[in-house]
Design a protein that fits this description.
With about 80 residues, the chain is an all-alpha fold. The chain is built from four helices and no strands.
């Protein structure tokens, strides 16, 4: 019988490998350099999300988010069965 890997462990491994690929790659000479003046993408996204208000969204966007949210909950329920 072949060795099997539990699904959750396999997914966690793939996610970790994917995040490893997103890590910044700096040459050794730049590793000690000062931080660039541009904010990292995560900081810019966090600032955008923090400043976003419900009134800023149009009706089509709200409906799309509701649809994606319901789909996500359904996938989560289906994954537990």
């Amino acid at each position: 019988m072949a060795h099997s890997i539990p699904r959750r462990r396999a997914i966690a491994g793939m996610a970790a490998f994917g995040l490893w690929g997103l890590a910044p790659r700096l040459p050794a000479a730049e590793a000690g350099a000062s931080k660039s003046s541009a904010d990292p993408l995560a900081d810019r996204l966090a600032a955008y999300a923090d400043g976003l208000r419900y009134d800023d969204l149009d009706a089509a966007t709200i409906e799309r988010v509701k649809s994606h949210f319901i789909d996500t909950i359904g996938c989560g329920i289906a994954a537990t069965v």
